Amino acid sequence: MSDLLQQSRCPWCLGFPEYITYHDTEWGVPVYDDRVHFEFLILESAQAGLSWATILKKREGYRRAFADFDYEVVAEFPESYVQELLQDPGIIRNVLKIRAAITNAQCFMEVQQEFGSFSNYIWGFVGGKPIQNSLRTMGEALATTPESDRLAKDLKKRGFKFLGSTTIYAHMQATGLVNDHLVDCHRYEEVKKLARESNK
């Protein structure tokens, strides 16, 4: 742990080693894989009212319970399996969130049919390339933006649940649609470089 703390990082990730690893390897990296987008949508919708640290600790439980985030499988979950999931301590046992994940899987595939991929759809809300912010303190970080407002509104119109603007902005941060690493974080320039490479 001491070695991990030697580099400058966004202070929100310093709670436990898995959080630092997530920050250093995933958070802010541009995502174009639909299955990864679906994973984060499930995890972020489950987070509503809870901390991301809580969800991150249950990530493997979600991976197991939700068919390794295979949206085609999740879309077909029967009510009997919903009842099983309500007994599973590896996930957040909230019936509305569980049912929302199934509904969202169905809506996710409808978006794929319309746009060719969910990635094509969601990147359209930021003009196809990551928004590069220049945050110097956590106090400058926003909870929502006009882009997340528009995206959340459109998702709601399409039938998605538990994905309001705050949750969607967290998704945008996590999947690299926006770079919200602090400028003095060692990942800021690394993620910025990844964004440039993905748009070549």
UniProtKB/TrEMBL annotation:
GO molecular function: DNA-3-methyladenine glycosylase activity; metal ion binding
GO biological process terms held by the UniProt record: base-excision repair
Keywords: Metal-binding, Zinc
Classification via Pfam families: Adenine_glyco (PF03352)
Transmembrane segments: none
Positions contributing to Zn(2+) binding: C10, H23, H181, C185
Superkingdom of this protein's organism: Bacteria
UniProt protein name: DNA-3-methyladenine glycosylase I
